[in-house]
Amino acid sequence: MTDPVHGATAFVGLDPYFDELDEAEIQVATRRLIVFVVSGRSFACEMGAVREVVPSQAVTRLPGAPKEVCGLINLRGTIVTVLDLGHKLDHSACNTKEGLILLAEYGEKLVGLGVDDVRDILDVPVDDLSALEKLAEADSHIVTAVANIDGHEVMVLDIKEVVREILG
Length: 168
Hints:
Layout (H helix, E strand, L loop, with lengths): L15 H5 L9 E9 L2 E6 L5 E4 L13 E7 L2 E7 H6 L9 E7 L2 E7 L1 E9 L3 E2 L12 E7 L2 E6 L1 H9 L1
Parallel strand pairs: 2-11, 5-7
Antiparallel strand pairs: 1-2, 1-8, 3-6, 4-5, 6-7, 9-10, 10-11
């Protein structure tokens, strides 16, 4: 049996901890991701970046706002700016009437991100995340990795960077 810390077998037989260690107990480093759909494509972000997922509701459009800003909602007495990830990621609007809103903290404000659907929350092994060589230069600052989820490549977004890019 290999020592998970030192990578050696020298401790077997010398310490009961190492003798009883089952290979299944060795934990694999993971990242907890929330997987969501925008314009028919799957994306993900760190679960820690999302405070809450709420159903879509009536949005009040802001005159003169960029197309990536859907508008404002009143969420339990708090005014929340809702952004359209569809416009940001592939230039087509997400379904704001039937979709969902991911709530994220940005500084001291709460910001909503309109998505079509939330699929899952997964602990993805770090080994299933790959580097960003395939991405265009324009996307590389909002994408932290590409995850291999069920045989599909899913871009992992940096939500704070996406919000910063839209709102400034």
